[in-house]
Amino acid sequence: MNKSFIFSILALATLMAAISLYFWAREPAMDPSTMEVKARVMAVDDSEVHTFGLSHIGFQTLGIQILNTRFKGVKTQATNSLNGQIDLENLYHVNDTIIAAVIMDKDGKIEHVKAIDLYRQNSLLSMFIVFTIALLLYAGAVGVKALISFVLSIFIIWEILVKQILAGYPPLIMTTFTLILLSAIIIFMIAGLNRKGLTAFLGTIAGLAVTLCATLVFGKEAGLLGMTQPYVNALIFSGYYNLDIRQIFYSAIILGASGAAMDIAMDIAASMDEIRIKKTNISAKELIKSGFTVGRQVIGTMTTTLLLAYSGGYLTLLMIFRVKDPSFMRMINLKIVSAEIMRTLIGSIGLVMVAPITALLGGIIIASFRSDTKSG
């Protein structure tokens, strides 16, 4: 087995272990008299539950056995309040594994237990394992690098972007800084520190700059404040009254388009680099022309990809429009619809501009390395 592949595997394992330990050691913002536990539902009493279609109102009384913490093995009762909010609540059944909040008295004994949610970590972990195995089997060492960049991206977004925005730093500035950092990590880790990586990186940054400018220009004109984003009200009511929600909305647009921008830039840069290797005497003009050809093909599908991705997130909204059949003018001017159209179109503008910019940069950077014929 290749030594670099083994080293990459060890690096990935070390990184994931370190980040896992970090999150495991974090103290949740919780009342000291409350403890979150994992529990199995042993019995269910639904006598106080009233069902209306898919909604449930009332409360369940659950017989549970705690599976972890110092209360492991303890059998007790838990309540599950139901207010008809099917997007937030669960109706539990025997043998379900759940998360519960244990409220303790001053002596540290169990006073009351409240069911919080289903325990889904095992299912999510299984999905991640399948994803990891598939990626490693197909991509090998490159797949390991992709996983490292994937894990690092999660950590950077959580610990730098989200944390600093909540601390009061300007959302757009923090998002721009974060995306430059992420682009450098992801692209140079996958492509290497070479002409291909430099071309893809600069193309990505240029495309994101266009996206940022378009967001600022059209965002103000559209009069969207960003209040259509999920959990904005919950965030404000949690005490974060001074957050610039509009800038956070703009940041979400740029962040959402960044992955596709990197993808296009890398596709074009890699294609141009491969052409340069196969045809060492190709001119910059010919190389740029080839880059434009590749870019057109990629853009043709990528803009639709953004539309499908955003439409998938609001499929039920589209269905309710079919049911209610509002006028086109009313539908198109709804805040949530206008916000998603803006998100899709602004992202697409950035993607369209990434392709020619990357092709032009590739013609300058890649074609200039006459003596370097080895792909990075």
From TrEMBL:
The protein's matches in InterPro entries, at most eight in alphabetical order, are given as: YibE_F
**Keyword vocabulary terms for this entry:** Membrane, Transmembrane, Transmembrane helix
**Transmembrane parts of this sequence:** 6-25, 124-157, 169-191, 198-218, 248-270, 298-321, 341-369
- PANTHER family this protein is in? MEMBRANE PROTEIN, MEMBRANE PROTEIN-RELATED
Q: What is this protein called?
A: YibE/F family protein
Organism, by scientific name, is Desulfobacter hydrogenophilus
